[in-house]
């Protein structure tokens, strides 16, 4: 089973979204990392630049300490075994165009999964709607895509509509609400394990997460997902090793 480091974290004690974090995640052998991309606020010349995980993008001045998209892509290119789910943090085509241009320039179409949401939920910082996938594919048909399923009631329909390479199940870490929603409410409505198999058989990977606790790792192992997204990569990797035949 694949382990994906949310924000590049190998442990919840790490800050995440830094080039050092991404390097450490690569060193411990995760399949991939997740990070965000958005524009800075306009500079004095009115220009914006894509950066990795700008903490205060609304009205904030450009912060030179943040990794630029270029510096991140240069690092990723130097780590050929590492993949990335790159989540768009703005719901606009201008950002899609800028990011796809850069992915293409660096020749990383095979390892970066442009990430959007099934349905925007801004208060959960899920900003980019799934329709942006179509814009990205027009620009570069080779681009890989990943959808966060905010309401995973019909995964096969979601897969048919957008044909993503990955669907992840939108679980909030350390959330009693997520635990109740998936393990109680959703279980009564749909056969999630069966839906996952149908989607996998059609060629789309399924990732569970963000999950950080062993009982939740166990839940997603039972669902036969392809991978887990976590802030706790070291613990997740040790847990998965115990489940290997």
From TrEMBL:
Query: Record's superkingdom?
Result: Bacteria
Q: Region labeled Disordered — which residues?
A: 44-64
Q: Which biological process, per GO, is one annotated for this protein? A: lipid metabolic process
SUPFAM superfamilies assigned = PLC-like phosphodiesterases
MF term (GO), any: phosphoric diester hydrolase activity
- What is the protein's given name? GP-PDE domain-containing protein
User: What taxonomic ancestry is recorded?
Assistant: Bacteria, Candidatus Yanofskyibacteriota
């Amino acid at each position: 089973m694949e382990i994906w480091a949310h924000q590049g974290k190998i442990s919840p004690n790490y800050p995440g979204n830094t080039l050092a974090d991404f390097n450490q995640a690569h060193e411990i052998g995760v399949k991939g990392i997740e990070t965000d991309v958005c524009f800075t606020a306009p500079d004095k010349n009115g220009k914006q630049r894509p950066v990795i995980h700008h903490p205060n993008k609304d009205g904030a001045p450009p912060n030179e300490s943040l990794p630029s998209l270029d510096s991140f892509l240069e690092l990723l290119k130097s780590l050929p075994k590492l993949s990335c789910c790159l989540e768009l943090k703005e719901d606009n085509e201008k950002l899609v165009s800028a990011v796809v241009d850069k992915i293409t320039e660096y020749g990383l179409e095979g390892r970066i999964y442009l990430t959007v949401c099934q349905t925007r939920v801004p208060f959960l910082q899920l900003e980019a709607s799934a329709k942006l996938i179509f814009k990205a594919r027009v620009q570069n048909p080779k681009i890989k895509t990943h959808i966060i399923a905010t309401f995973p009631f019909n995964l096969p329909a979601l897969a048919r509509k957008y044909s993503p390479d990955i669907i992840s199940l939108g679980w909030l870490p350390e959330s009693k609400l997520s635990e109740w929603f998936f393990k109680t409410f959703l279980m009564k409505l749909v056969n999630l394990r069966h839906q996952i198999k149908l989607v996998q058989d059609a060629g789309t990977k399924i990732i569970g997460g963000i999950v950080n606790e062993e009982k939740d790792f166990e839940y997603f192992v039972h669902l036969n997902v392809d991978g887990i997204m976590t802030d706790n990569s070291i613990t997740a990797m040790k847990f998965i090793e115990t489940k290997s035949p």
